[in-house]
Amino acid sequence: MRWLHTSDWHLGRGFHGHSLRSEQEQMLETVCAAVTEHQVDVLLIAGDIYDRALPPEWAVAALEEALQRITEGGTQVIITPGNHDSAARLGFGRGLMRGSGVHIRSALSEAWTPVEVTESDGGQTLVYGIPYLEPQLFAPSLGLDGGHHTGVTAEVIRRIWEDVERRRVGGSEPTVVLMAHLFAAAGAASDSERNIGVDAAAGDRPEHHEESIGGLAVVPLELFEGFDYVALGHLHGRQRLSETVRYSGSPLRLSFSETRQAKGAWLWDSGSVEPAQPLDWSIGRPLAQLELPLEELLAPETVELHRESYLQIKLTDPIRPARAFQRLQEVYPYMASFSHTGRHDAPHRTYSAKVERARTDTEVVEGFLEHVRGGRGASAEEAQLIAEGLQAVRP
């Protein structure tokens, strides 16, 4: 039986003020096409289907259409909510949808009640979907005194294995799959993930430890031993933590820290000795990070190469050129981030120092201009306007 592991669709999300609707519609089309092309039997979506608890109407309609297309082809879909989703809203109608092949595990009690999938050879696969569990909210329901991600996850997994044992009748050995939305040890972070107790910068790979709540928020891989496949969501880079524990990552790049991340999904054949194989997807506009002086950024060859990309631009001119932002915006319509990183070598760099040294009101204003414009002082015309303005307001 063939499985497609995805997560972190974040339907309804934007990118630095730009709408991602067209990219996300392309993403849903890509998932539907992959299900058909690879003859997928079960699609796993491990959390953060939406980007917020109240998604836009188009996102809800687009998800419904995609799920309908997928299930009409005979593929089953199993969904768990992530920390961006509203579990209650996402789970609405799950009893009705079960009959159409869409299984949503959105309640705590459903975490140790599997979706039972019968394989073509008659074997059975048990899929346990753990919804995102905020420790402080769910620890009491699990009989735990303190709340942290490791403790909550460990208790849920203990109950899952109890359920598996009850189902091992007559010596049968089912395939057991786990879905969860959490921060697992040694997973690499991105800038676009909402903090769920782990203070990790982009690229960090925090380990589990018991010295702090942050360390306990990182779930150790040992908890996932024994499962045939663990489909994780939350981290946005596709990554393999062990032979059976994997993050699919987000299909789209959602921050500039993901510029060089592998994007796509995992394709896994249960019952096969072969490990899960990556599917590579390139969806939406490319991302680029440019750190150059203005002259090079406006060069025709640079503009031609990056005009259609979402750009993070860091201007390196020692003194910020006039109208730099506006001139770049004219040639790069998808510029998403702009900053001036240049440094000018004047002996007094701070505005407070300029104020201390100023001998006239005009020098105070000109010092402010020089400060906010990265070292570029007032032009002769501007100096004349400043002088006239000050003269006009003097008693």
From TrEMBL:
<dbReference type="GO" id="GO:0006260">
    <property type="term" value="P:DNA replication"/>
</dbReference>
<dbReference type="InterPro" id="IPR004843">
    <property type="entry name" value="Calcineurin-like_PHP"/>
</dbReference>
<protein>
    <recommendedName>
        <fullName>Nuclease SbcCD subunit D</fullName>
    </recommendedName>
</protein>
<keyword id="KW-0233">DNA recombination</keyword>
<keyword id="KW-0235">DNA replication</keyword>
<feature type="domain" description="Calcineurin-like phosphoesterase">
    <location>
        <begin position="1"/>
        <end position="237"/>
    </location>
</feature>
<keyword id="KW-0255">Endonuclease</keyword>
<dbReference type="InterPro" id="IPR041796">
    <property type="entry name" value="Mre11_N"/>
</dbReference>
<comment type="subunit">
    <text>Heterodimer of SbcC and SbcD.</text>
</comment>
<feature type="domain" description="Nuclease SbcCD subunit D C-terminal">
    <location>
        <begin position="285"/>
        <end position="371"/>
    </location>
</feature>
<dbReference type="InterPro" id="IPR029052">
    <property type="entry name" value="Metallo-depent_PP-like"/>
</dbReference>
<dbReference type="GO" id="GO:0004519">
    <property type="term" value="F:endonuclease activity"/>
</dbReference>
<dbReference type="InterPro" id="IPR004593">
    <property type="entry name" value="SbcD"/>
</dbReference>
<dbReference type="GO" id="GO:0006310">
    <property type="term" value="P:DNA recombination"/>
</dbReference>
<keyword id="KW-0378">Hydrolase</keyword>
<dbReference type="InterPro" id="IPR050535">
    <property type="entry name" value="DNA_Repair-Maintenance_Comp"/>
</dbReference>
<keyword id="KW-0269">Exonuclease</keyword>
<comment type="similarity">
    <text>Belongs to the SbcD family.</text>
</comment>
<dbReference type="GO" id="GO:0008408">
    <property type="term" value="F:3'-5' exonuclease activity"/>
</dbReference>
<dbReference type="Pfam" id="PF12320">
    <property type="entry name" value="SbcD_C"/>
</dbReference>
<comment type="function">
    <text>SbcCD cleaves DNA hairpin structures. These structures can inhibit DNA replication and are intermediates in certain DNA recombination reactions. The complex acts as a 3'-&gt;5' double strand exonuclease that can open hairpins. It also has a 5' single-strand endonuclease activity.</text>
</comment>
<keyword id="KW-0540">Nuclease</keyword>
<dbReference type="Pfam" id="PF00149">
    <property type="entry name" value="Metallophos"/>
</dbReference>
<dbReference type="InterPro" id="IPR026843">
    <property type="entry name" value="SbcD_C"/>
</dbReference>
